[in-house]
Amino acid sequence: xxxxxxxxxxxxxxxxxxxxxxxxxxxxxxxxxxxxxxxxxxxxxxxxxxxxxxxxxxxxxxxxxxxxxxxxxxxxxxxxxxxxxxxxxxxxxxxxxxxxxxxxxxxxxxxxxxxxxxxxxxxxxxxxxxxxxxxxxxxxxxxxxxxxxxxxxxxxxxxxxxxxxxxxxxxxxxxxxxxxxxxxxxxxxxxxxxxxxxxxxxxxxxxxxxxxxxxxxxxxxxxxxxxxxxxxxxxxxxxxxxxxxxxxxxxxxxxxxxxxxxxxxxxxxxxxxxxxxxxxxxxxxxxxxxxxxxxxxxxxxxxxxxxxxxxxxxxxxxxxxxxxxxxxxxxxxxx
Length: 335
Hints:
It is a single chain. By secondary structure, the chain is an alpha/beta fold. It folds into two domains: 2-236, 4-Layer Sandwich (Metallo-beta-lactamase, Chain A), CATH 3.60.15; 239-332, no CATH class. Helices cover 40% and strands 16% of the residues. It has 13 helices and 13 strands. Helix 1 (43-52) links the parallel strand 4 and strand 5 (62-64). It starts with a strand and ends with a helix.
């Protein structure tokens, strides 16, 4: 745990036993709110941290999730049970999966097999009466004039919200601005199937920038050094570059994942096998390739848009693993 901004404490939820993989954030106030729970497997670490911060069972007023993927919201049901007064805040398209996670969990179990329980865990249901849907611009009151403003931010997922803290100025960006681990090299886009949409993702970055945040907090991982303007510009450029490379490989019949890895693998990716394994599990080239491929397939008949970026790389054939990952991730993601 560490204080990273005025009244904002970062909690390392230790996904898979890894440090600096997935973060939750406690936002202080008369009615404190936890942003992101992490996975169900991380709940013991999270509850210990909240207890160390003096948050008892009656103290937590809210849990706000950016989206309902299991590495962000898998712990919601357990946390709601541990804090019976907490309201759970979520995008309209994700709410039903918190209330009845059976379809999501069953799909995830088919995809991940033993890895689901070994790494992520499941998702316990949350009483519908405790779930509050947030629309764009709606707020969560923490007391003393402090509010979190929800920002509809699709692109990574249709059910994605950012949260902008009025007191610290921190914008909790979930996965909408990508993934950058302290030990894992440069920023990577997070473009999983089935929801990824390049134009929506770029638009969400613009919406974040328009709010002029004081800092950007990523779920993977933490407050990003430098200015928010620099980070959002880097995220925009990375999305365009990765999409351009994916589009070129797709048109030429090359393996999209291999093309992305060849161009964008960094020295940090190769330096430490453990770091590489962590990054590939959270946001690997194959997952991104599957998302880009699905996006390209859904827009085959559309004219080339302004977000298309030309690229100049070689030949090959698309790897069957990208097909499998696309199908599996599509099953595992909430609709």
